[in-house]
Design brief:
Layout lengths: L6 H6 L21 E9 L6 E8 L4 E8 L8 E8 L6 E6 L7 E7 L9 E4 L9 E6 L10 H7 L6 E4 L33 H11 L3 H9 L2 E3 L10 E2 L2 E2 L9 H15 L13 E5 L3 E5 L13 H5 L5 H13 L9 H16 L4 E5 L23 H15 L13 H13 L4 E5 L5 E8 L2 E8 L17 H11 L3 E5 L4 E7 L3 E9 L9 E10 L8
Parallel strand pairs: 8-9, 9-10, 14-15, 15-16, 16-18
Antiparallel strand pairs: 1-2, 2-5, 3-4, 3-6, 6-7, 8-20, 11-12, 13-14, 17-18, 17-19, 20-21, 21-22
Length: 544
């Protein structure tokens, strides 16, 4: 079917606000009947896209999905019928086939009583020669910390073709834990008030987040590809446990199953059996292949614990060296696992062999090497608790012998990182790694012992506080300068702002731009600035 969208039609939708696309301002209250939490689209290909909505009725309800090349639905095509299933929390999904490549579409759902959902906008991926494509990158959105102004700004960014969510779409904590009650923004309440552990808890937390109008809006106007990080399960999750899970909360495997089930219910992603391969790829014409991998619950080993290794040791220096050589460098420890790594290697080689310009790897955690500057011991405020000062002192000592800041990132799995980056080198890839998790913005040159392997653009958070919130005695610019001087792979960082990232791909270069929101404490899409970094194809190094 041929359904192109004239630029004037896009302009006619104004800012793509909720009112412009038909969603009432008071929509999406938890417990409401009918269409309750907006619409969404995801996982586009050249000929298809997945459509999502939630409709609460009495039991299962059969909906009709419509799609059109026009916002007024002239020339409407009935995409098909789909049921909003009660045992799937009233979620309805349908993958529409037979679409044309590189086209914008509008879609909606219609209930048996004639009521209609909001109107969504989505698009298919390009095929063949592609001169330009722009991806938005978001992650780490903790609702009580502030407003989702980054989502609101991205929803009005007319340059965007696709959104990538790197994870921490929501957080599992009870009210008052993260953020504390003092840090919580009034009116930004979550449900349930306790930690999400059981099936009903996870569902209610997603419903609370998806009641946010800015989160609804970004789903409404752009297709999204997404993968969870840890907080969709529990903090610092790994294959057989998590930092924020103990036996009193039940079996970890059962909790993982529940969390993945609810993620697949509430996100515009394909439903699949638990334990099925969780990786995927998306072809952007001849311009790029985006590889989406999972690095939390499928294969990751438990993060190593430096504090435990040093506990009770008289000779801290010797204990650090033993930890570095025998524990940290253990080659058996995995991040993504051998099966996923084998798939990635094959897919990356095929992408490069086909003549695709860029190999873009979207995953969860920072990959670049990051050690604590020695002067960081002076970055904590005078009135900071003793444990904070001690941690910085130990971190500075650890850095002197090559140990990193964060063992939950790829820095905690150095041999696994070496294996992963070697895949790109063996494929002669033009590698761009997209990452989230850290809450701050990063631009790294990635390398192995054999040389350059690619670049990393690390996205800052939508609302979650970054490293600057713990280093209250340091000016963020001073900290950023020291971090870049200490870490040779790090080419630039920002440790002060919330926002989102855009990555514009062309055949000759890729430009990442970090957009800095002025505030998250009031509703505003005002920017306080932005910063861009460029990589030229064939160099695997950030310019300038």
């Amino acid at each position: 079917m041929t359904m192109n969208i004239d630029r004037r039609q896009l302009m006619a939708l104004g800012t793509f606000g909720l009112g412009a696309l038909g969603m009432p301002a008071s929509a999406a209250l938890i417990g409401a009947k009918g269409f309750t939490h907006g619409i969404a689209s995801g996982e586009p290909s050249q000929q298809s896209v997945l459509l999502w909505t939630r409709y609460v009725g009495s039991g299962n309800v059969k909906l009709t999905a419509e799609i059109s090349g026009n916002p007024d639905f002239a020339g409407t095509v009935i995409a098909g019928e789909v049921e909003a299933l009660a045992d799937r929390d009233h979620i309805a999904k349908i993958t529409v086939q037979g679409l044309d490549p590189n086209h914008w579409y509008f879609y909606r759902f219609i209930a048996p009583d004639g009521s209609k959902s909001a109107v969504g906008r989505t698009r298919t991926l390009p095929e063949g020669p592609t001169p330009k494509f722009t991806v938005g990158v978001v992650g780490c959105s903790n609702l009580p910390f502030g407003y989702f102004n980054a989502y609101a700004h991205a929803a009005q960014n007319r340059e965007l073709d696709l959104m990538v969510h790197t994870g921490d779409y929501l957080y599992e904590y009870p009210v008052g834990t993260y953020p504390s009650k003092e840090q919580m923004l009034a009116g930004r309440m979550i449900q349930p008030s306790h930690e999400m552990v059981q099936l009903a808890d996870y569902r209610l937390r997603y419903a609370a987040y998806r009641s946010d109008p800015d989160l609804q809006r970004i789903h409404q106007v752009l297709p999204m590809i997404a993968m969870w990080d840890d907080h969709e399960f529990a903090n610092d999750a790994y294959i057989d446990g998590a930092e924020n899970h103990d036996s009193s909360e039940g079996d970890w495997e059962a909790r993982k199953r529940v969390a993945e089930r609810v993620y697949r219910e509430w996100m515009p992603v394909t439903d699949m059996e638990y334990g099925s391969p969780r990786w995927s790829e998306y072809q952007i014409g001849d311009l790029a292949t985006i590889f989406m991998t999972e690095s939390r619950i499928g294969a990751r080993n438990e993060p190593v614990d430096l504090a435990a290794a040093l506990k009770g040791q008289q000779d801290i220096q010797k204990a650090l060296e033993t930890f570095r050589d025998d524990v940290w460098q253990d080659s058996a420890r995995e991040m993504i696992g051998s099966e996923q790594q084998s798939w990635l290697a094959s897919a990356m080689q095929e992408s490069k062999a086909s003549g695709t310009k860029w190999q873009v790897w979207s995953q969860q955690c920072v990959m670049g090497e990051l050690k604590l500057p020695q002067e960081a011991i002076n970055w904590v405020a005078d009135d900071a608790p003793a444990f904070a000062k001690q941690r910085l002192a130990v971190g500075a000592m650890a850095a002197r012998i090559g140990l990193p800041i964060n063992f939950d990132s790829w820095d905690g799995y150095p041999q696994a990182r070496e294996r992963a980056l070697s895949i790109a080198q063996q494929a002669d890839a033009d590698l761009i790694v997209l990452s989230g998790d850290s809450h701050n913005a990063w631009a790294f040159d990635l390398a192995t012992d054999d040389g350059a392997a690619g670049v990393e653009f690390g996205g800052h958070s939508v609302t979650s506080p970054g490293i600057e919130s713990y280093l209250t005695g340091a000016n963020p610019d001073v900290a950023a300068k020291a971090l870049t001087e200490t870490n040779s792979q790090l080419q630039w960082t920002d440790t002060a702002h919330r926002g989102y990232m855009t990555v514009t791909l062309t055949p000759e270069k890729a430009v990442s731009t970090w957009h800095f929101l002025d505030t998250i404490r009031t509703k505003s899409i005002a920017l306080t600035g932005s910063k861009s970094r460029t990589v030229l194809r064939g160099t695997n190094r950030i310019q300038g």
